[in-house]
Amino acid sequence: MIILLVIAIPLFLYSLKSMGVWGRSSVTPAQAAGSARTAEKKSGSLQARVNNNLDPTLRLDRLQASQKIQYAGGTRNIFRMEEPPPKPIPTPIAQVNTTPTPYVPPPPPPINLKFYGFSSKPGEPKRVFLADGDDIFVAKEGDVINRKYKIVQITNNSVLVEDLLNNNRQTIPLTAPATG
Predict the structure, then answer these.
(1) Whole-number Å distance between alpha carbons of 138 and 149
(2) What domain range is 164 assigned to?
(3) Is 179 inside a domain boundary?
(4) Degrees (nearest 5) of the Cα angle 94, 100, 104?
(5) How many domains does the chain have?
(6) How many CB atoms sit inside 10 A of residue 115's CB?
(7) b/e for 72-108, b at 16 or more Cβ within 10 A?
(8) What is the Cα–Cα distance from 130 to 113, expressed in whole angstroms?
(9) Is 8 a member of any domain?
(10) Nearest-CA neighbor of 170 among 179, 160, 180?
(11) Is the pLDDT score of 53 beyond 70?
């Protein structure tokens, strides 16, 4: 660490001396101009050519030409990241029907029970066998089937079933099941 410090102190002092902060600069203005001309000849850069053509006179023709330029700014705000929303396109207003259409509730779902058979013994109420897919239910008047259908009335020709969830009544005819 001491060795690095010994090397760093002279380098620091030398950099201060070359910047002209400490002591006098060893480069004279004449030497600086000569080195600039040499660099200009070697590099041939645009900057070096512009420095040679510096003319302190005021060029009024260039000044007037620059004053004639009109600034036409865009819609973009350079201080905001997002784009402005597009201008809305006016659409013609269509004539709206002012008469409201009455609300018609959708029809209740059908009761999917099918007649499967019936049973009647003397002195007992009639029982009916109803099928819902692969399930067969045996019920008499007043019974609830599958927790949603109530048997309201059993006659010789039909069964009146009420859907308890949708308040819908449907008559199921007592016919022989189709074999197939």
Answers:
(1) 12
(2) 114-173
(3) no
(4) 130
(5) 1
(6) 17
(7) eeeeeeeeeeeeeeeeeeeeeeeeeeeeeeeeeeeee
(8) 6
(9) no
(10) 160
(11) no
Taken as a whole, the chain contains a residue count of 180
Residue 118 lies in a domain: yes
Q: E strand or H helix at 65, and its extent?
A: helix 60-67
| Interval 118-164: pLDDT, tens | 888 888 888 999 998 889 999 999 999 988 999 999 988 899 999 99
Nearest 5°: phi and psi at 5?
Answer: -65, -40
Counting Cα atoms < 13 Å in the Cβ hemisphere of 2 gives 0
> Is residue 130 domain-resident?
yes
How far apart, in whole angstroms, are the C-alpha atoms of residue 62 and residue 168?
93
- 149/142 Cα distance (integer angstroms): 10
Q: Say yes or no to pLDDT of 50 above 80.
A: no
Taking alpha carbons only, the member of 129, 126, 104 closest to residue 116 is 129
- Which amino acid type is present at position 85? P
